[in-house]
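Workshop exercise sheet. Pairs work together: one partner reads the sequence aloud, the other fills in the structure field after running the prediction. Swap roles for the next sheet.
Pair: D.N. / O.F.
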Amino acid sequence: MPLGLAEAGLDDPIVDPILAVMEAITLLSAPLIVVLMVTINDCSSRERKVFGVIALSFAVIMAGLTSAVHFVALTAGRQTGFAILPWPSPLYALELLVWDVFLGLSLIFAAFVFGGAGIQTGARWSLLCSGTLCLVGVIGPILGDMVFKRLGIIGYGVGLQISCLFLARYFYRHDGGINEQTIKCYSPNL
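Structure field:
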């Protein structure tokens, strides 16, 4: 994303070959977000499990829709001449719904899985902030002023990565790294 923005600027659409690379990366990263939410749901306490399930549900919707948009753009889009997603366009509107609304809601509900202190506080607040920025980013297409869309980009382009750092620390501390308890947790037949 930073390379695409550096080449195209903030007002012009990103074009090939950078666009094709970004679409391929999106196709690879969408399932990873689902895996992240599966892991968050898996570690949620019984009383907070509903938040993990909701976060996972929104992540699955997000991954499915964004994969469809980018697969169409990488294949048929290149052959029919609509590979670029300028604003306004139906595919770009769908993409904004996916990343601003569905991912934003997924991150916010994931935040409520973490109710404790310490590293859980960091995970909770980073997920809440990045999810909120994603949701605020939807103001851009609603108003037709894509400057507000940049807040959503900060939410998933920066905030999500910061959240992942907190989550990595939490998962490592929660499981104590790879140990006998972790192996039993993920391999109950052993």
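Discussion prompt: Residues 2-186 form one domain. What would you look at next?
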